[in-house]
Amino acid sequence: MPGTHQASKFDQSTRGGALKLLWFRMNLHFKRMILCLLIINLASCGGREPVDLLIVNASVYTVDGDKPWAQALAIRDGLIVAVGASDALIRDYDGEQLDLQGQMVLPGFHDSHSHLVYGGLELMRCDLSAESTVEDLLQTIAACDDALAAGEWLIAGGWDLSLFESTNPSKSLLDDINPKRRMFIRGADGHSAWASSAALDYAGIAAETPNPSDGIIERDASAEPRGVLRESAMMLVEKVLPAVTVEDRLKAARISVALAHSMGITSVIDAATTESDAKAFDALDADAALNLRLVLAMSLIAPFFDQAPLSSVKVSERYSDQNVRRSSAKIFIDGVLEGETAALLSPYLVGNHGHGMLITPASALTEQVVALDAAGVQLMFHAIGDAGVRMALDALEAAREANPAQDLRHHISHLQLVDPEDHPRFEALGVVANFQALWAFPDDYIMTINLPAVGLDRVQAMYPIGSLHRAGARIVGGSDWSVSSMNPLLAIETALTRRDPTGVRPQALNAAEAVTLADMIEAYTINGAYLAHRENQTGRLKPGYKADLVVLGANLFELAPSEIGEVPIVMTLFEGQKVYPK
Question: Fewest beta carbons less than 10 Å away: which of 147, 360, 481, 570?
Answer without folding.
Answer: 147
